[in-house]
Amino acid sequence: MRDTSLETAHPDAHGSAPGAPSPGAPPSPLAAWHELVHTRNPRGLEALLADEVVFHSPVVHSPQHGKALALQYLRAAVAVFGNESFRYVRELEGDRDAALEFEVEIDGVYVNGVDMIRWDDAGRIVDFKVFIRPLKAVLGIQQRMAAMLQTKS
């Protein structure tokens, strides 16, 4: 795995992000995810997920199988976590997977977490697992996610 913690996912002066594919090539799933997080716009999320994707929530006991459920959880997560303080602070990337450590402040509570993402040969995400800490953050996220998911159903 390559540690890209010192690199930034934001474009450089020439408009290219470090490790970005050459012009005309489809974006990598990781680049597409970073763009989605940076813009806080989940519009491209459906195309990024495989039909058989599995989402592992830090606050739900069982894995959530399928694109429809993963979309619900990830759209809610973009809304809950998507504020100006969110940033990835460390990134470990393999050929078809990545671990992205993040930090964010929500309602005055520091949240530290890791997104573990795995994708298939077609570049679609097949597994997305989230870990967060400390306990106070987990409990707060659980409440906010539950409220967000109830309004979506």
Q: If helices are DSSP runs of H or I spanning 4 or more residues, what is the number of helices?
A: 4
C-alpha Rg (nearest Å): 15 Å
The N- and C-terminal alpha carbons lie at a distance of 39 Å
Q: Overall pLDDT, averaged?
A: 84
| Biggest sheet architecture | 7 strands, mixed
Low-confidence stretches: 6-19
Number of strands: 7
Structural class, judged by helices and strands?
A: alpha+beta
Amount of beta strand: 25-35%
Order of helices and strands: EHHEEHEEEEH
Shape: globular
**Largest sheet: spatial strand order:** 1-4-5-6-7-2-3
Helix content: 25-40%
Provide an overview of this structure:
- Strands 1-4-5-6-7-2-3 form a 7-stranded mixed β-sheet.
- The protein has helices at residues 29-39, 45-48, 67-81, 135-152, and strands at residues 2-3, 49-56, 64-65, 87-93, 97-106, 109-119, 125-133.
- With 153 residues, it is of the alpha+beta class.
Quick summary:
By secondary structure, the protein is α+β, with helices and mostly antiparallel strands.
Characteristic terms for this protein:
153 residues; alpha+beta; seven-stranded mixed sheet; 7 strands
Q: SSE layout and pairings?
A:
Elements: E1 2-3, H1 29-39, H2 45-48, E2 49-56, E3 64-65, H3 67-81, E4 87-93, E5 97-106, E6 109-119, E7 125-133, H4 135-152
Parallel strand pairs: 2-7
Antiparallel strand pairs: 1-4, 2-3, 4-5, 5-6, 6-7
Helix pairs in contact: 3-4
